[in-house]
Amino acid sequence: MQADQCTERPLFGGAIVSVFPLRFQDLSEIRQVPDHQEAFVDPARDESLIFELLDLKPDVADNGSATWFLEDLAREQNAEGALLIEQSHVIEAEGLRFRNMPAIVTTAVGQMAISKGRQGREAQNTVRVYVANLRLKEVGTDILISAYEPILINPLSESASTVGAGLTTPAAQCGYMPMAEVFKLAVTSFKVNDWGLFGAS
Q1: Contact 72, 188 (CB under 8 A)
Q2: What is the spatial distance between Cα 31 and Cα 181, in angstroms, rounded to a whole number?
Q3: Whether 129 contacts 112, CB under 8 Å
Q4: How far, in whole angstroms, is CA 18 from its chain's centroid?
Q5: φ and ψ at 62, to 5 degrees?
Q6: What is the pTM of this model?
Q7: What angle do CA 13, 23, 141 make, to 5 degrees?
């Protein structure tokens, strides 16, 4: 049984930092990741954690913005049976402020059936998806932190060869931090060191 070691990880060249377990490897070392994204994966559990910098969506209301992004992710990934499990109220992140405006944070948790990469619908896995939207209005940016936790692996999925088909073993039973806690830690420890990343001066 191994315990999860957590450490502060640099994102976007160190302009941002966040704390999460070392078992999550930088995906850019394996394949190309878009410039506006930082992606980390634990291949042994097929769990992933993604940080994205997006242009602020002014037409999306603060209340429920994470839910909007969760639904957007479901559309992007051609998910089936997307289900909203919970959503938070709007929280002001006092520790994350530019000039005098704190970031506005909402979270949402959903479940959906999605396929890996280019695999078709016949290979869909049931995945729990955690989404946090950190709205930095002063610098016109929506930050999206999303975490993916497979619940049921399809035998036809490419994940089946590494993780095994069927219901996944809960992280705690393997001595790992559950994905809900990994997500919460990554969001609450998220810190901007260099606001110049957003073109702010």
Answers
A1: no
A2: 27
A3: yes
A4: 12
A5: -60, -45
A6: 0.89
A7: 35
